[in-house]
Amino acid sequence: MARNGASFLAEVGHLTAAVGKTMGVTLRNFLRRPVTIHYPDVKREYPERFRGLLALTYDTETGEENCIGCRLCEYICPPQVIGVEMLKGEKRNYAKTFTLELYACEYCELCVQVCPTDAIVMMRSVDLATADRRELLLDKDRLHELGLRYEPSWATGTKLRGMQAPPKVARE
Ligand code: SF4
Ligand code: SF4
Question: Model-level pTM greater than 0.85?
């Protein structure tokens, strides 16, 4: 009987210690500043090298579409979410249609890396939340509109390919 009483007291001791420890954690987190923000009323500043939404760009000097409809992005895309039809022109080619299923995009950036004209780039934003999946099926107009709405990231295809180039052999 005495042994049962001792083991009961030991159990109560363990339980009290466990509750005390848990309450300590709760109290510490209660006093800590929240890590969440009231999005979209409050927006977090993205880091300098952040890359998010995909978009199509215009040539800043001529105002022409940069995309030449070459379809390299379509071929490289792992989940095959890009579809491009080329429109042949006299001096250059264009994308007749360009679709991107953003809801299935892996954000791997391979399409950006292979683009010879820096036409497809990632923006410094991911603010395209929606409850309607169809809104994330982007056509050429919407991709251009996103390119004008958001700030482009630093990472164009030209810059990314430049970073992968082997180091130059030092001259003797
Ligand atoms: S980021 Fe990757 S997955 Fe998304 S469209 Fe480009 S190549 Fe495809
Ligand atoms: S976005 Fe670039 S890679 Fe894709 S079709 Fe246009 S020019 Fe070619």
Answer: no
